[in-house]
């Protein structure tokens, strides 16, 4: 048996080359916590390793690797197999889809298979391709991870695979840090011309239900006192939202801001400056943004569907994303009432339950178990 003192782990970090989404939060939180283990050496791959370095920092057990190709398929077929071979990688960690050229043990995190249960939000082509890719990737993986009990149940139901381990998302410690609200609001007003605003942090897809927020903003005439901020990149065009937006007056449109391709610190600043945060998604494999906004002490209302139903501490701040009237009532409540005590208690619960150190410990133990087995090469 070939025994090494250090286990080499490659992590596909191409998601950091685009905007914020759940997979990016997952990789950043998990591997920031895992870097404390000095018997692990990490090779983080992306098209912009310098940018990646600003996120993870300099560590003796971290090497940043440059991809040669922007194309997803060339990355999986050429870039990653070459990196694995050159650096004698023991484990390669992918999100959803692995490289078909296997030169080490594989870890795959399948965050969700929402496209199977909610087909109307996804194209036929993406459903067809992803079903094949995700299922085959899981079969090739030596360690299978997912982020919620909901997703684990769905993966077993649809793929017939029962050996998934739940490694929940957690909330970055930065969200729990104290800050002076008025100072943040002044800075946001000066830099972004935003005052008394409602924020929705999410990439754009029809299942994210942006139109529910827009309808409430118009029907409740919130534009008279508030602004509305959508923060996130466009992934899939939402025609229902666009139709409503196009019919608005210039007065209302001027109170709506969309920001894309922002960095973590800017996102955190804009979240802290908000009067309220909403998360009306129809379907999520986990749903980290509402936890982050509560951690930042922002009054938040959250959808009670799919994996988000695990967030039982939301209680009266839950709503059904198919019921506009209920959403409107809950939004008005957090805008017009002092809910500081409730959300401080919720933030404490989140810090206790969703902890990256705990998730990292689970993954570390899995790595040790599989390292003690015969090595791949």
UniProtKB/TrEMBL annotation:
Biological process (GO), any one: lipopolysaccharide biosynthetic process
KW Transferase (keyword) present: yes
Keyword Transferase: yes
Keywords: Transferase
Residue ranges constituting the Glycosyltransferase subfamily 4-like N-terminal domain according to the UniProt record: 22-172
Pfam families: Glyco_transf_4, Glycos_transf_1
Residue ranges occupied by any Glycosyl transferase family domain in the UniProt entry: 195-344
An annotated Gene Ontology molecular function: glycosyltransferase activity
Organism domain of life: Bacteria
PANTHER family cross-referenced by the UniProt entry: GLYCOSYLTRANSFERASE WBBK-RELATED (PTHR46401:SF2)
Name this protein carries in UniProt: Glycosyltransferase family 1 protein
């Amino acid at each position: 048996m070939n025994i090494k003192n250090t286990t080499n782990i490659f992590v596909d970090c191409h998601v950091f080359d685009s905007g914020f989404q759940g997979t990016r939060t997952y990789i950043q939180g998990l591997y920031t916590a895992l870097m404390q283990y000095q018997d692990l050496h990490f090779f983080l791959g992306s098209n912009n390793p310098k940018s990646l370095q600003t996120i993870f920092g300099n560590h003796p057990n971290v090497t940043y690797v440059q991809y040669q190709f922007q194309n997803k398929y060339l990355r999986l077929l050429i870039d990653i197999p070459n990196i694995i071979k050159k650096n004698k990688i023991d484990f390669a960690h992918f999100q959803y889809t692995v490289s078909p050229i296997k030169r080490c043990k594989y870890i795959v995190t399948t965050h969700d298979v929402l496209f199977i249960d909610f087909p109307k939000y996804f194209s036929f082509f993406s459903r067809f391709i992803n079903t094949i890719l995700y299922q085959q990737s899981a079969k090739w993986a030596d360690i299978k991870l997912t982020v919620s009990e909901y997703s684990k149940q769905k993966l077993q139901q649809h793929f017939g695979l029962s050996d998934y381990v739940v490694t929940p998302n957690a909330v970055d410690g930065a969200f729990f840090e104290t800050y002076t609200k008025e100072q943040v609001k002044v800075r946001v007003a000066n830099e972004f011309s935003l005052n008394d605003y409602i924020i929705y942090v999410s990439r754009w897809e029809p299942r994210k239900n942006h139109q529910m927020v827009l309808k409430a903003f118009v029907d409740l005439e919130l534009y008279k006192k508030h602004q509305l901020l959508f923060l996130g990149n466009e992934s899939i065009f939402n025609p229902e939202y666009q139709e409503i937006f196009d019919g608005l007056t210039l007065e209302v449109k001027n109170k709506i801001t969309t920001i894309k391709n922002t960095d973590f610190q800017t996102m955190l600043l804009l979240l802290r400056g908000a009067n309220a945060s909403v998360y009306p998604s129809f379907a999520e494999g986990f749903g980290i943004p509402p936890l982050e906004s509560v951690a930042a002490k922002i009054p938040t209302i959250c959808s009670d569907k799919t994996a988000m139903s695990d967030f039982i501490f939301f209680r009266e701040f839950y709503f059904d994303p198919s019921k506009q009237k209920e959403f409107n009532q809950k939004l008005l409540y957090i805008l017009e009432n002092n809910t500081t005590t409730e959300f401080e208690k919720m933030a404490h619960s989140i810090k206790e339950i969703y902890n990256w150190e705990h998730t990292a410990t689970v993954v570390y133990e899995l790595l040790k178990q599989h390292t003690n087995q015969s090595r791949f090469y």
